[in-house]
Write a structure and sequence with these properties.
three-stranded antiparallel sheet; seven-stranded antiparallel sheet; Jelly Rolls; single chain; 14 strands; binds 6-O-phosphono-alpha-D-mannopyranose; mainly beta; binds zinc ion
Length: about 180
């Protein structure tokens, strides 16, 4: 991770007719949280995050780049934060940049040997996610977490491994402090 000045990238809105918006509700995170009782007590239609993407070339095009801004709501399910589903790339060696625009969170990373670690996200933090590394973001504060992403247009999303086996560590809120364990 490197720290950029917070003025480096402050746009929180993507406005263009070529922008797609994807909404994820709590339902989309089914099976991901440890506390199943807390999960089933939730209104599963509640919005968890939204991703605005600019996809200038067709998905799967070799050599192109995609750009996205994710708006992740604050909240907890049991002691686990609201978070993105997380994925490897379908073409596993493809890398990606994430950078934090607003709010605070944790980028959770896991390599193919299931070693999991975290990088703190705060405005201006720039995160290089190397290939073969699963990535997920958790919102650890009470405000919306906004982060940018740029990834190769042929990377693809492989959600299956994460849906099946999860990450080897979870990020819990322990007395108000994020702990990866
Ligand atoms: C970033 C990028 C997108 C991804 C989104 C949400 O904007 O990595 O490709 O879709 O975050 O993450 P996920 O797909 O894991 O829910
Ligand atoms: Zn990715």
């Amino acid at each position: 991770m490197i720290q950029l000045p917070t003025t480096f990238f402050t746009a929180t809105n993507l406005t263009s007719k070529t922008v797609n918006k994807i909404q994820r509700t709590i339902k989309d995170l089914t099976g991901i949280y440890k506390d199943e009782a807390a999960f089933s007590a939730e209104d599963t239609n509640k919005k968890m995050y939204e991703v605005a993407t600019y996809l200038p070339v067709a998905e799967g095009t070799e050599g192109g780049l995609f750009f996205g801004i994710t708006y992740l709501q604050p909240g907890l399910i049991g002691n686990e934060y609201y978070m993105t589903k997380g994925h490897f790339h379908t073409i596993e060696n493809r890398a990606e940049y994430y950078w934090c625009i607003e709010g605070k969170g944790m980028l959770i990373l896991m390599d193919k040997d299931r070693n999991t670690w975290g990088e703190a996200m705060q405005p201006g933090s720039l995160h290089y996610i190397k290939g073969f590394t699963a990535h997920r973001v958790a919102n650890t504060e009470n405000d919306v977490l906004i982060f940018g992403a740029c990834w190769p247009s042929d990377a693809g999303h492989d959600y299956e491994a994460i849906a099946k086996n999860g990450f080897s560590k979870r990020l819990f809120n322990i007395n108000g402090i994020p702990a990866l364990q």
